[in-house]
Amino acid sequence: MNESERFEVVATDLVGDLGFLGLERRTLRTPSGDTVERVVVTHPGAVAVVAMAGDDIVLIEQYRAPASGVILEIPAGKLDPTDFDLQKAAERELLEETGYRAATWRTLTTMWTAVGFSDERITIFLATDLTEGARSPHGAEEMASIVRRVAFDEAVRMVTSGEITDSKTIAGIMITDAHRRAS
Fold this sequence. Notes:
alpha+beta, 7-stranded mixed sheet, 23% helix, Nucleoside Triphosphate Pyrophosphohydrolase, 2 domains, 3-stranded antiparallel sheet
Protein backbone atom coordinates (compact mmCIF):
# COMPACT_ATOMS: atom_id res chain seq x y z
CA MET A 1 0.00 0.00 0.00
CA ASN A 2 1.38 3.44 -0.89
CA GLU A 3 1.16 6.42 1.45
CA SER A 4 -1.77 8.07 -0.37
CA GLU A 5 -3.93 4.98 0.16
CA ARG A 6 -3.54 5.30 3.91
CA PHE A 7 -5.73 8.40 4.19
CA GLU A 8 -8.86 7.55 6.15
CA VAL A 9 -12.12 9.48 6.45
CA VAL A 10 -12.82 9.59 10.19
CA ALA A 11 -15.79 12.00 10.20
CA THR A 12 -18.21 13.56 7.75
CA ASP A 13 -20.43 16.51 8.62
CA LEU A 14 -23.16 17.75 6.28
CA VAL A 15 -22.69 21.53 6.10
CA GLY A 16 -25.40 22.23 3.55
CA ASP A 17 -27.99 20.51 1.39
CA LEU A 18 -28.80 22.36 -1.81
CA GLY A 19 -31.05 19.80 -3.45
CA PHE A 20 -28.92 17.73 -5.78
CA LEU A 21 -25.71 19.29 -4.40
CA GLY A 22 -24.40 18.84 -0.91
CA LEU A 23 -21.59 20.42 1.03
CA GLU A 24 -19.64 18.22 3.42
CA ARG A 25 -16.76 18.80 5.79
CA ARG A 26 -14.66 15.64 5.93
CA THR A 27 -12.08 14.96 8.61
CA LEU A 28 -9.23 12.79 7.33
CA ARG A 29 -6.51 10.93 9.17
CA THR A 30 -3.28 11.27 7.19
CA PRO A 31 -0.62 8.57 6.80
CA SER A 32 1.41 10.35 9.52
CA GLY A 33 -1.55 10.17 11.93
CA ASP A 34 -2.46 13.88 11.78
CA THR A 35 -6.02 14.97 11.03
CA VAL A 36 -7.00 17.53 8.41
CA GLU A 37 -10.33 18.90 7.24
CA ARG A 38 -11.44 19.08 3.63
CA VAL A 39 -14.63 20.51 2.12
CA VAL A 40 -16.35 18.43 -0.57
CA VAL A 41 -19.20 19.41 -2.87
CA THR A 42 -21.21 16.21 -3.34
CA HIS A 43 -22.96 15.50 -6.62
CA PRO A 44 -25.03 12.53 -7.83
CA GLY A 45 -22.95 12.15 -11.00
CA ALA A 46 -23.76 12.85 -14.61
CA VAL A 47 -23.73 11.53 -18.16
CA ALA A 48 -22.74 13.24 -21.40
CA VAL A 49 -23.02 12.28 -25.05
CA VAL A 50 -20.82 12.78 -28.08
CA ALA A 51 -23.64 12.45 -30.61
CA MET A 52 -22.40 11.92 -34.16
CA ALA A 53 -24.73 12.59 -37.08
CA GLY A 54 -22.57 11.35 -39.94
CA ASP A 55 -19.46 13.55 -39.87
CA ASP A 56 -21.16 16.16 -37.67
CA ILE A 57 -21.24 16.37 -33.90
CA VAL A 58 -24.41 17.59 -32.17
CA LEU A 59 -23.67 20.39 -29.72
CA ILE A 60 -25.76 22.60 -27.47
CA GLU A 61 -25.36 26.36 -27.01
CA GLN A 62 -26.62 26.90 -23.49
CA TYR A 63 -26.43 29.63 -20.88
CA ARG A 64 -24.44 28.53 -17.82
CA ALA A 65 -24.77 30.66 -14.68
CA PRO A 66 -21.28 29.84 -13.28
CA ALA A 67 -19.73 31.03 -16.56
CA SER A 68 -22.12 34.03 -16.81
CA GLY A 69 -22.56 33.23 -20.48
CA VAL A 70 -23.36 30.78 -23.21
CA ILE A 71 -21.18 27.68 -23.45
CA LEU A 72 -20.98 25.31 -26.43
CA GLU A 73 -21.10 21.76 -25.10
CA ILE A 74 -22.11 18.18 -25.70
CA PRO A 75 -25.55 17.14 -24.38
CA ALA A 76 -25.34 16.16 -20.72
CA GLY A 77 -27.28 15.93 -17.50
CA LYS A 78 -27.13 14.92 -13.89
CA LEU A 79 -28.16 11.49 -12.74
CA ASP A 80 -31.48 10.99 -10.99
CA PRO A 81 -31.65 8.73 -7.91
CA THR A 82 -33.28 6.01 -10.05
CA ASP A 83 -30.58 6.08 -12.76
CA PHE A 84 -28.88 2.72 -12.31
CA ASP A 85 -28.35 2.26 -16.06
CA LEU A 86 -26.03 5.06 -17.18
CA GLN A 87 -26.67 4.48 -20.87
CA LYS A 88 -30.42 4.84 -20.36
CA ALA A 89 -29.76 8.14 -18.56
CA ALA A 90 -27.60 9.27 -21.49
CA GLU A 91 -30.35 8.27 -23.93
CA ARG A 92 -32.84 10.37 -21.94
CA GLU A 93 -30.56 13.42 -21.87
CA LEU A 94 -29.79 13.21 -25.59
CA LEU A 95 -33.49 13.03 -26.46
CA GLU A 96 -34.54 15.78 -24.02
CA GLU A 97 -31.87 18.25 -25.08
CA THR A 98 -31.56 17.56 -28.82
CA GLY A 99 -34.46 15.42 -29.98
CA TYR A 100 -32.05 12.79 -31.30
CA ARG A 101 -32.11 9.05 -30.61
CA ALA A 102 -29.13 6.82 -31.30
CA ALA A 103 -29.08 3.19 -32.40
CA THR A 104 -25.44 2.60 -31.42
CA TRP A 105 -23.87 3.44 -28.05
CA ARG A 106 -20.33 3.11 -26.72
CA THR A 107 -18.87 4.19 -23.38
CA LEU A 108 -15.87 6.48 -23.93
CA THR A 109 -14.77 7.24 -20.36
CA THR A 110 -15.75 8.09 -16.82
CA MET A 111 -13.94 11.10 -15.38
CA TRP A 112 -13.81 13.27 -12.29
CA THR A 113 -14.99 16.77 -13.21
CA ALA A 114 -13.37 18.81 -10.42
CA VAL A 115 -11.57 16.36 -8.15
CA GLY A 116 -10.02 19.15 -6.07
CA PHE A 117 -13.36 19.95 -4.43
CA SER A 118 -16.16 17.75 -5.80
CA ASP A 119 -16.99 14.05 -6.00
CA GLU A 120 -18.87 14.47 -9.31
CA ARG A 121 -18.06 11.83 -11.91
CA ILE A 122 -19.37 11.99 -15.45
CA THR A 123 -19.61 9.10 -17.87
CA ILE A 124 -19.23 10.13 -21.50
CA PHE A 125 -20.81 8.07 -24.26
CA LEU A 126 -20.44 8.03 -28.03
CA ALA A 127 -23.81 7.83 -29.80
CA THR A 128 -24.07 7.12 -33.53
CA ASP A 129 -26.70 6.13 -36.09
CA LEU A 130 -28.91 9.04 -35.06
CA THR A 131 -32.52 9.70 -35.92
CA GLU A 132 -34.06 13.10 -35.30
CA GLY A 133 -37.22 13.65 -33.28
CA ALA A 134 -38.76 16.21 -30.95
CA ARG A 135 -36.86 17.84 -28.09
CA SER A 136 -38.36 18.04 -24.60
CA PRO A 137 -36.07 20.46 -22.77
CA HIS A 138 -36.33 20.93 -18.99
CA GLY A 139 -35.54 24.17 -17.19
CA ALA A 140 -35.04 27.72 -18.37
CA GLU A 141 -31.54 27.20 -19.75
CA GLU A 142 -32.43 24.12 -21.80
CA MET A 143 -35.58 25.76 -23.13
CA ALA A 144 -33.48 28.68 -24.41
CA SER A 145 -30.67 26.47 -25.72
CA ILE A 146 -29.83 26.05 -29.38
CA VAL A 147 -28.94 22.70 -30.96
CA ARG A 148 -26.07 22.97 -33.44
CA ARG A 149 -24.54 20.46 -35.81
CA VAL A 150 -20.86 21.16 -36.34
CA ALA A 151 -18.48 19.30 -38.64
CA PHE A 152 -16.43 17.07 -36.34
CA ASP A 153 -13.08 18.33 -37.67
CA GLU A 154 -14.28 21.88 -37.01
CA ALA A 155 -15.19 20.89 -33.42
CA VAL A 156 -11.65 19.52 -32.93
CA ARG A 157 -10.28 22.81 -34.26
CA MET A 158 -12.57 24.71 -31.87
CA VAL A 159 -11.16 22.71 -28.95
CA THR A 160 -7.54 23.33 -29.91
CA SER A 161 -8.17 27.05 -30.57
CA GLY A 162 -9.88 27.54 -27.20
CA GLU A 163 -13.35 28.25 -28.60
CA ILE A 164 -14.77 25.18 -26.85
CA THR A 165 -13.89 25.47 -23.16
CA ASP A 166 -16.19 23.00 -21.39
CA SER A 167 -14.13 20.15 -19.89
CA LYS A 168 -16.53 17.27 -20.62
CA THR A 169 -16.91 18.50 -24.18
CA ILE A 170 -13.16 18.77 -24.67
CA ALA A 171 -12.66 15.27 -23.25
CA GLY A 172 -15.46 13.76 -25.33
CA ILE A 173 -14.33 15.35 -28.58
CA MET A 174 -10.66 14.53 -28.11
CA ILE A 175 -11.29 10.91 -27.06
CA THR A 176 -13.60 10.47 -30.04
CA ASP A 177 -10.96 12.02 -32.29
CA ALA A 178 -8.33 9.60 -30.95
CA HIS A 179 -10.64 6.61 -31.61
CA ARG A 180 -11.40 7.85 -35.14
CA ARG A 181 -7.69 8.25 -35.91
CA ALA A 182 -6.92 4.76 -34.54
CA SER A 183 -9.59 3.13 -36.73
